[in-house]
Amino acid sequence: MNRLLAACALILWLCVIPIIRASQAQPVPGTTPEIFKQFSEYVVKIEVVETGSAAKASTGTGFVADPSGRIVTNYHVISKLVHSPERYRIDVIDVAGGTTVATVLGVDVVYDLAVLRTARRPKGHLDFESKPVEQGTRLYSLGHPHDLGLSIVEGTHNGLLKHTLYPKVHFTGSLNPGMSGGPTLTQAGKVVGVNVATEGNQISFLVPAERAIALLERTAKVETPAAAGFLADVGRQIYDNQSRYLAGMFDAKTPRVVLSPYNLPTRPTEFFRCWADAVRRKELPYVSVTHDCSTDDYIFVSSEQSSGIVRFFHQLLSTSELNPARFFTLYSGQFQGGNAAMFGNEEEVTPFRCQTRNVATANGKLKAVLCARQYIKLPTLYDAVFRAATLGSRNAGLVSTLSLSGVSFDNVQGLSRRYMENIKWQR
Predict the structure, then answer these.
(1) Cα 410 off chain centre by
(2) pTM (2 decimals)?
(3) Mean pLDDT value of segment 211-217
(4) CA separation for the pair 164, 157 (Å, rounded)
């Protein structure tokens, strides 16, 4: 009897082993291994190569987005070629290691997208999700993090960001450099967004799928890219986009904040964030109160340039201990601060040129300086810093600074003037 039971147990064990092994070898449909196995062949690695040295200048990810083989990626991934097409080429490397040179068919610099084409015909492509995706839906992002090989990252869809200049999907997952331009998929393999940025700590962002669809439609009939390249188109897109976010800024409806004795502008639109603080220490003979606001988004232009950044900073200095001469020295030092916060090298921007003048406004007297520099390759765009200091008080003063990046000179002048007019004294 014992031998019979042992034999039955052995037969049962032998029957169970193949079942266990089979379940381990065959991923369950809809699981992460199955999604990677089924859709990774449509994801490619993007390498921007410096032709003089044959060395990689940047890497990213893309994916095959239609039956003709067009590839979607981020603009920032291939921006070096857009700025210097004579120096770079784009290599597209498929999952099997095959390499093909790509050409750019179109870019959307505002939404950080580009469409590429290669001579290779794909076996298939990824489709876009056409239905709304609920918050909390499990998503799967594919890409080449840090040039370590194709990887998959799980996360969740947390809806569109509410207070941002450009629509972005909040993806709770760990995107890393190199995954930019890759697809983020539903469990069914439909693309809901294009990987674009991360802030770490499981906070990442996607360009919504509809923006990629729009660029694919816009480039559907493009056969031969423009001989002059896309840099002029990048400049036009940035220039045309300014009216959308600068219109009405610092108008009569702008909210106000009081830093006594001054009444000042604060958060002009919902895509600004503002902070305030104060320095009050016994060892210091003065008090400093600050109010700082900036846009929470920007347009990537190049590794050294951005557009769409608007920041303004109010600093109120006051004293009950310093005599007027010593306070004036302190106050003047704050006003004469430089433009070091802005990036850019001599190949991309001109030096700052400044004009200083005393201005009598309807509210009081100001000393104002406006400094601007021009983009060399995008000459319709400028960076600017406007700084104003109130005059007339012996023991208190306000220094207020407005910084702009990648805007027209007309907007530099117009926005600086409106900003200055919003600096008011309490009555």
Answers:
(1) 25
(2) 0.87
(3) 97
(4) 17
